[in-house]
């Protein structure tokens, strides 16, 4: 053809190589962008699992299972009870600082960070001072394990409520110095709703005391009458983390894998975001009971559910 230039084999190969290189670069850019977005999402939301579903097993078995299920974060809660006890916790007031430090090391050896530790009750029934001392002991243990926050569940005796929150108020600065946040979850009977939790947090009145929302408990402690979708608007500005817990109406039970019960997590999380909770720990607390192998499958299923939930909401 007039005016055309015939392409030599060398020129053809050179051009092809450039196109391939450009395509590879574009592919790498797309892949890098996707990875960056994934890293940002992971930085915004820390998806974890508590040890509670493995409450009849040693906590190290729970850590193994949680890591195998693909988590990078663990919440310390239940462990195998000793003697004839019905339940036990990984870390309590009775745990030594050295033991707490070793527990934290066990988690990190499995690649797990600890956003939340539930340490059980404090001896506020004995005296205010013993309650303060007990809470400081839990804070010390949380710091030794390198836990980021200490989860509390309130008090179940109305006559002790004032002293209980006084103890928390007295310890907020101490916890902040140890780089440990103190959180409160909705729990019966005295702080089972958003408004009751707000009252408790405002009573303490410290930035280092916040709410760890638990939609499953909102259902459970109202016998299914109060939907967390309706309750969640009452906690705007208070929430720094969440127990990802579902609720099964048929059995009035929270031992159900998230996404398989009555909680509308998408709507709950959307409203939490509207109220200021735009990032933080989302720690799965309960799963449908199963044998050890089955629990790993349930945990993996729950993790994927929360990951999809966050992706939809991001």
Mean pLDDT, to the nearest integer, reads 90
For the largest sheet, list the strands in their spatial order: 1-2-5-6-7-8-9-10
SSE pattern = HEHEEEHEHEHEHEHHEHEH
User: Which bin fits the share of residues in helices?
Assistant: 40-55%
- Unreliable stretches (pLDDT < 50, length at least 5) are 1-39
| Envelope shape | globular
Tell me the β content.
5-15%
Rg, Å, rounded = 24 Å
Count of spatially separate domains: 1
- The top-level CATH class is Alpha Beta
Could you provide a short overview of the structure?
The protein is an alpha/beta fold.
Report on this structure.
With 314 residues, this protein is α/β, with parallel strands linked by helices. The chain has a single domain, classed as Divalent-metal-dependent TIM barrel enzymes (TIM Barrel), CATH 3.20.20. The chain is 46% helix and 14% strand. The protein has helices at residues 9-44, 59-68, 97-109, 128-144, 161-177, 194-204, 215-220, 228-231, 265-274, 292-313, and strands at residues 45-50, 73-76, 78-79, 88-89, 113-118, 149-152, 181-184, 209-213, 239-244, 280-284. The strands form two sheets. Strands 1-2-5-6-7-8-9-10 form an eight-stranded parallel barrel, surrounded by seven helices. Strand 5, helix 4 and strand 6 form a beta-alpha-beta unit. Helix 3 packs parallel to helix 4 (128-144), helix 4 (128-144) runs parallel beside helix 5 and helix 9 (265-274) crosses helix 10 (292-313). The longest helix is centred in the first third of the chain and has 36 residues, at 9-44. The termini are far apart. Residues 1-39 have low confidence and may be disordered.
